[in-house]
């Protein structure tokens, strides 16, 4: 039966030997890879924020999560943080915004969808770099300056 409680998985995987986040240039991975990762990072940050800030029932948390994890809100979030991004962050953000996407959801404008993708690319890139403090700071700026919460 899995997991086998007799095995110390942390020891087995030798987590202490995992590679530390390295210096990574903005061109090292495809933009789509940063967006894929950033979508998960952003979604987890929203869930953590909602869980700790609201102490609500799961259904209420889910409804609030839907409001924050969508292209419209993420496009607004992009506008909130853009002026405080470093030059390097702006470069990766703009690459994400300008990337070609396979489709745009019917109920979202192309500009909203591209801005949301840019935010996800930035969050994925910062996460890969190990810039967790910067991620938390940018997320707090979004939460503290959004009119839609």
Walkthrough of the structure:
With 149 residues, the protein is an all-alpha fold. It has one domain (30-145): Ribonuclease III domain (Ribonuclease iii, N-terminal Endonuclease Domain, Chain A, Orthogonal Bundle), CATH 1.10.1520. It is 66% helix and 0% strand. It has helices at residues 9-13, 31-54, 58-68, 71-82, 87-98, 110-129, 132-145. The longest helix is centred in the first third of the chain and has 24 residues, at 31-54.
Defining traits:
149 residues; mainly alpha; Ribonuclease iii, N-terminal Endonuclease Domain, Chain A; 7 helices
Q: What would a concise description of this structure say?
A:
The chain is mostly helical and about 150 residues long. It has helices spanning about 10-15, 30-55, 60-70, 70-80, 85-100, 110-130, 130-145. The protein has a single domain, classed as Ribonuclease III domain (Ribonuclease iii, N-terminal Endonuclease Domain, Chain A).
Map the helices and strands.
Elements: H1 9-13, H2 31-54, H3 58-68, H4 71-82, H5 87-98, H6 110-129, H7 132-145
Helix pairs in contact: 2-3, 2-6, 4-6, 4-7, 5-6
- Mean pLDDT across every amino acid position: 85
Report the strand count: 0
Give the helix proportion (percent range): 55-70%
CATH architecture verdict: Orthogonal Bundle
CATH superfamily: Ribonuclease III domain
* Count of helical stretches: 7
* Strand content bin: under 5%
Count of structural domains: 1
Query: SS-based structural class?
Result: mainly alpha
Distance between the terminal alpha carbons, to the nearest Å? 44 Å
Could you tell me the radius of gyration in angstroms?
Answer: 17 Å
Approximate shape: globular
CATH class: Mainly Alpha
Tell me the CATH topology.
Ribonuclease iii, N-terminal Endonuclease Domain, Chain A
- pLDDT < 50 runs, ≥5 residues: none
Helix-strand pattern, N to C?
Answer: HHHHHHH
Biggest beta-sheet profile: none
């Amino acid at each position: 039966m899995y997991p086998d409680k007799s095995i110390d998985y942390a020891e087995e995987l030798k987590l202490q030997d995992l590679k530390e986040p390295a210096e990574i240039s903005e061109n090292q991975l495809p933009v789509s890879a940063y967006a894929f990762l950033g979508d998960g990072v952003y979604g987890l940050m929203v869930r953590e924020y909602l869980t700790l800030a609201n102490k609500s029932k799961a259904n209420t948390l889910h409804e609030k999560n839907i409001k924050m994890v969508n292209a419209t809100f993420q496009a607004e979030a992009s506008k909130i943080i853009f002026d405080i991004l470093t030059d390097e962050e702006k470069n990766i953000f703009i690459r994400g915004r300008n990337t070609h996407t396979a489709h745009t959801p019917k109920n979202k404008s192309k500009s909203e969808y591209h801005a949301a993708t840019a935010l996800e690319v930035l969050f994925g890139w910062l996460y890969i770099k190990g810039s967790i403090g910067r991620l938390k700071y940018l997320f707090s700026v979004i939460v503290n300056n959004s009119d839609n919460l």
